[in-house]
Write a structure and sequence with these properties.
The structure holds 2 protein chains of 2 kinds. Chain A has a domain of about 60 residues: Alpha-Beta Plaits. Chain A is about 10% helix and about 15% strand. Chain A is built from 2 helices and 4 strands, in the order βαββαβ. Chain A has a two-stranded antiparallel ribbon. In chain A, strands 2-3 form a two-stranded antiparallel ribbon. The longest helix of chain A has 5 residues. Chain A is globular, with a radius of gyration of 12 Å. Chain B is α/β, with parallel strands linked by helices. Chain B contains 12 helices and 10 strands. In chain B, the strands form 2 sheets. In chain B, strands 2-1-3-4-8-7-10-9 form an 8-stranded mixed β-sheet, with helices on both faces. The longest helix of chain B has 18 residues. Chain B is globular. The chains are: A alpha+beta, B alpha/beta. Chains A and B meet through helix 1 of A and helix 1, helix 7 and helix 9 of B. Bound molecules: thiamine diphosphate, iron/sulfur cluster (3 copies) and magnesium ion (MG). The site of thiamine diphosphate has 17 residues of chain B, from helix 4 and strand 5.
Chain lengths: ~90, ~270
């Protein structure tokens, strides 16, 4: 994938605006837009942690690239990966 | 990790679940575990009963059976008996498994038939508007418990363990990575695997109990979860409102369809020699 592409994409047609991804993004990459959906506002800050993708209940977020040694979907909790609560 | 969208029937999306419903997170964990396990999509059967959780079978592109309330395990047992080569996954709710389907659960566990069961436990009957279930904690509110639930909930993992399940684990929607690991181990395990996944129902359980919206309910799961190791050092009273996460059972015991096939083989040889 080319690096200039947004690291995460939100499928607005499936997003239900639950705010989970926004809450668990450690870098404030995502925010709620006027339509009440999640949207990418700070793409350059994304650390490809996968929190948003794993926790979206609506399959509405997809990473367009992965870390080389990808954080596997398994093994530890969101908290242990530093996604944390704010 | 591949893209899990290839396991979805995208033409039925967006799904019916409410905004922030934990069931979608758990279904994602199931699909990622299947993907990581590298299973043949056409050789996986996903079977459910009735309820919001059980709607999951409608959205996934495997061989699927959306059956009757509480009866996912009998259908799964029948299919496994005639197609022991297939990987069988049951997706079910706490009402579906612990209430109307409770008897089927204990006998599937007792037989140790090779089925991976994932219970989406939101502590309530979501689909029928939030009645209390056998998994509603004491004193919590539900549509049918407006003064607080008088009953005690099951410890479902303890129940499955006592009934004979040979892989038993619990995690939560919040701990989605750990949950994916446990589902993966359940899929790899030969025998009856039981994974309890704590879910959130913001619409009924969350609202009735003033737990806030979905992000706050996930925070609640995080704050209230303790590991098996931590639980060991706690008094029962301290443990009461906690979610104990971890693997409770992981043991090798003869699996039912294998034992059955051995019997058929033995009888066949006797028939030939007669
Ligand atoms: C034989 C029968 N009895 C009762 C019902 C009504 N009913 C539908 S779903 C449900 C409970 C579902 O609860 P659960 O399995 O926890 O799923 P959830 O909706 O919470 O995900 C009940 C009682 C039914 N469909 N069939
Ligand atoms: S991958 Fe992580 S950092 Fe990037 S948008 Fe998602 S949650 Fe935020
Ligand atoms: S978690 Fe998913 S459904 Fe919820 S706001 Fe984010 S993209 Fe939308
Ligand atoms: S009623 Fe509850 S369990 Fe059912 S879809 Fe809505 S939030 Fe999920
Ligand atoms: Mg339920």
């Amino acid at each position: 994938m080319p690096e200039d592409k947004a690291p995460v994409v939100v499928n607005e047609a499936w997003c239900k605006g639950c705010d989970i991804c926004i809450n668990y993004c450690p870098k404030k990459v995502l925010a709620r837009n006027a339509a009440g959906k999640a949207s990418v506002v700070k793409p350059e800050a994304c650390i490809l942690c996968e929190n948003c993708e794993l926790l979206c209940p609506d399959f509405a977020i997809t990473l367009t690239r992965r870390r080389a040694k990808g954080l596997s979907a398994t093994s530890t909790s969101v908290a242990q990966k530093g996604g944390g609560s704010r | 990790m591949g893209d899990i969208h290839r396991y979805l029937r995208e033409y039925y999306m967006p799904h019916i679940w409410c905004p922030g419903c934990g069931h979608g997170i758990i279904l994602g964990a199931v699909l990622r575990a299947i993907d990581i396990a590298g299973l043949d999509q056409n050789n996986v059967a996903v079977i459910s009963g009735i309820g919001c959780a059980s709607r999951a079978t409608g959205y996934v592109d495997f061989c699927t059976l959306h059956t009757t309330h509480g009866r996912a395990l009998p259908f799964a047992t029948g299919l496994k008996m005639v197609r022991p080569d297939m990987k069988i996954v049951v997706l079910t709710g706490d009402g579906d498994t612990a209430a109307i389907g409770g008897n089927h659960l204990i006998h599937a566990a007792r037989r140790n038939i090779d089925i991976t069961t994932v219970v989406f436990n939101n502590s309530v009957y979501g689909m029928t508007s939030g009645q209390y279930s056998p998994m509603t904690p004491t004193s919590r509110f539900a549509t049918t418990a407006p003064y607080g639930n008088l009953e005690r909930p099951f410890d479902l993992c303890a129940l499955a363990s006592a009934a004979g399940a040979t892989y038993v684990a619990r995690s939560t929607a919040y701990h989605v990575r750990q949950l994916t690991t446990y589902i993966g181990r359940g899929l790899a395990h030969k025998g009856f695997s039981f994974i309890e996944a704590v879910s959130q129902c913001p619409t009924y359980y969350g609202r009735r109990n003033r737990l806030g919206a979905a992000p706050a309910m996930l925070e609640w799961q995080k704050r209230n979860s303790i590991s098996i190791e931590q639980a060991k050092d706690m008094e029962p009273a301290e443990r009461e409102d906690k979610i104990v996460t971890g693997e409770f059972v992981n043991q090798t015991v003869p699996e039912y369809t294998e034992v059955y096939a051995q019997l058929i083989g033995r009888l066949g040889r006797q028939g030939e020699s007669r």
